[in-house]
Structure formats: structure tokens, C-alpha cells
Amino acid sequence: RSEDHCTPAPRHAPPHAMNGAPPKQADGPSEGFWYTTGVIALLLVVCAESVAFSNYNKYVFLPENLPAPVLYTATCQTLSFCGAVLIWLLAPEWIYKRAPLNSTASFLKVMLIPVGFVMNYGMNNLSLKYTTVTLNQLIRSFSPVVVATTSYLIEGKTQSWPILITLCLLVVGVIMGVGTSPDFEVLGTMICSGSLIGNAISIVMTAFVMGDAKVKLQPIDVMLYTTIPSVIILLPWSLTLGEIETLRRSLEENGSFWTMAWILIGGFLACTYTFIYVLLIKMTSSVYFSVSGGFRTIAAITVSFFIFKQQVSVKSLIGMGIAMSAFIANSYFTLKEKVEEMDKRSQLEMKKPLLGDKQA
């Protein structure tokens, strides 16, 4: 058989290849525009849910309601797992297809996420039992620094100078905003401080495994693989704190309807919040998500002043303004860098030969 039959028919070169003119860009919004729009939309949703979740949890953990934060966190994780399983079973493959863990290394990487989660949300929720929302958020304001350091140690990621400067201003603003709290409490402060380490591990490892060339996990994968291990760690801890007795007392005093309603509402918030924040980490970075926490911190504190009647000063208002300005600047620089990376990838794709680097 002649090789001419196997040779593809030659294609005519596009007009711009003949005269050296650059290719004409496609009409309509660019990929960077849709990316930025998606990130902003997710950010608004995750901020709203974070504010609702923080203040809702503080309300649930009041002594007269359900002061069992570790058991409550375990039930929220269980309900998140149920939601992920439903999506896995019902969603068509073009929407979601489970990514298997094919190696021990991948499994061990993923298992660090529930360890970080327990240290993060378990200890954070427990600290809300002893501290105010304001003091809790003051301590959590150091999260961007811890996450940036952990991201450098685990992923080797470094930040540009504009992002580093805005990150420092964010921390200064948040500290000024909530530093007037008179509600210092040693035990709650120590527990909340410990949650920062878990927060960094959880966020950085989530970004790490979702960006790994071998693992390639989606947000639902993270929920499927990490929620039950978190529950296994949380339940013994809850038993040692005597929270089963607390649950029984709440059922007797508040009734099964309200007790179960608090748990189910918390589970719904946990499921949707986990999915959205994992998706936001996937679209941006672990450091950016932690920095966005500064904005969520200010919003949560502002709402808590109206709900729990906490005091505010002029210094606090100035600090909140600095934090919000730093967050907006950080968002601008982060999204600018991401869009520039996407534009570079698009230009490289356009420069590739039509038939690839190798001829048949």
C-alpha cells in the first residue's frame, strides 16, 4: 500500500499566517472575564454562609440550647457525607465522576485533610463555647500568615510583594478591628489558637491534592473521602467530653423538634459551605482563601454585634475599614495574576502548530 494513502491532505494556511498578522480574537467575554465573575460570585456566597455559620453556631452552643460543639461538628460532617453520596449517585458523569485514589501516597495525602479539619473546625467550634465571636475571630485573623507559611513549606509556593503587603495590612486591620474585646478567656483562647494549625493543614492540603497531577480531586471527592474519617476522630473526643449527656438533656429541655432542627440546619450549612469553599480553593489558591477569611471575619463580627450585643469603638471601625480595603486590594492582585496566567496559556496554545509538533 502506498504511503500516500496514509498522508493527511494538506491544509491551507490561515490568512494571518501568510501576512504575519496576529490571529483575530474571538468576540465576546474572555476566559479571564468568566473566571473573575465566577470567583466573585463564589466569594459572595462563601462570605454569606461563613457569617451565617459562625453566628448560628454561637447561638446553638449557648448553655440553654445545645452546648455540644464536637458532637455537633460530627453530625454536620455526617450530613455532608450524605449530601456528597447523593450527588455521586444521582449526578450524570458529565457533571461529576468520582476520582479514585489509586496509590498509598494519594490516600495518605487526602487523610491529612480530616486531621486538619478536626483540629480546625472541631477546636474552633469548641472555643465558641467559651469565648465570644469577637475574640474567636481575633485569633482566627492570624490564619493568612499561618496558611501562607504552611503553603510555602508544603507546596513551595511564594507570594508576590503586592500580595504579601496586602496580607500584612489585612492582619493589622483585623487586629485593630477586634482588639478592643474585653472578653479574654484563657481556655477558649488556647483552644482557638490550636485550631489555626488545623486550619492551615486542612486548607493547604486541600489545595495540594486538588492540584496534584496524579490525584486530581474535585470538591465532591474531597467531601466523600474526608468526612467519615473526620467523624471517626470526632466521636471519641465527644464521648470524653460527655456530650452525649448534653444531647440527652437538650432533647428533654428543648424537645426533639428543636434539637434535631438545630442539627439539620447546621448540617445543611456545613454541606453547602464545604462544597463552595473547596471549589473556591480549587479556582484560586489556599492563601487567597485564607485571606478572604479576613473579610469574612469582619462581616461575622459586624453581624455578631447586633445579635449578641457586643461593644464597638472608633478604633474597631477604623481597623475594619483597613481590613476590608486590604482584602479588596489582595483580591485585585490575586485575580490579576490568575488572569495573566490564563492569558499566557491561551497564547501558548494559539502558537502551537495545527497538526502538533510531530508530523505523521
Automatic annotation (TrEMBL):
<feature type="transmembrane region" description="Helical">
    <location>
        <begin position="186"/>
        <end position="210"/>
    </location>
</feature>
<dbReference type="InterPro" id="IPR037185">
    <property type="entry name" value="EmrE-like"/>
</dbReference>
<feature type="transmembrane region" description="Helical">
    <location>
        <begin position="161"/>
        <end position="180"/>
    </location>
</feature>
<feature type="region of interest" description="Disordered">
    <location>
        <begin position="1"/>
        <end position="25"/>
    </location>
</feature>
<feature type="transmembrane region" description="Helical">
    <location>
        <begin position="71"/>
        <end position="91"/>
    </location>
</feature>
<feature type="transmembrane region" description="Helical">
    <location>
        <begin position="287"/>
        <end position="308"/>
    </location>
</feature>
<dbReference type="Pfam" id="PF03151">
    <property type="entry name" value="TPT"/>
</dbReference>
<feature type="transmembrane region" description="Helical">
    <location>
        <begin position="259"/>
        <end position="280"/>
    </location>
</feature>
<dbReference type="GO" id="GO:0016020">
    <property type="term" value="C:membrane"/>
</dbReference>
<feature type="transmembrane region" description="Helical">
    <location>
        <begin position="314"/>
        <end position="335"/>
    </location>
</feature>
<feature type="domain" description="Sugar phosphate transporter">
    <location>
        <begin position="48"/>
        <end position="324"/>
    </location>
</feature>
<keyword id="KW-0812">Transmembrane</keyword>
<keyword id="KW-1133">Transmembrane helix</keyword>
<dbReference type="InterPro" id="IPR050186">
    <property type="entry name" value="TPT_transporter"/>
</dbReference>
<feature type="transmembrane region" description="Helical">
    <location>
        <begin position="222"/>
        <end position="239"/>
    </location>
</feature>
<dbReference type="InterPro" id="IPR004853">
    <property type="entry name" value="Sugar_P_trans_dom"/>
</dbReference>
<keyword id="KW-0472">Membrane</keyword>
<feature type="transmembrane region" description="Helical">
    <location>
        <begin position="32"/>
        <end position="51"/>
    </location>
</feature>
<feature type="transmembrane region" description="Helical">
    <location>
        <begin position="103"/>
        <end position="123"/>
    </location>
</feature>
<protein>
    <recommendedName>
        <fullName>Sugar phosphate transporter domain-containing protein</fullName>
    </recommendedName>
</protein>
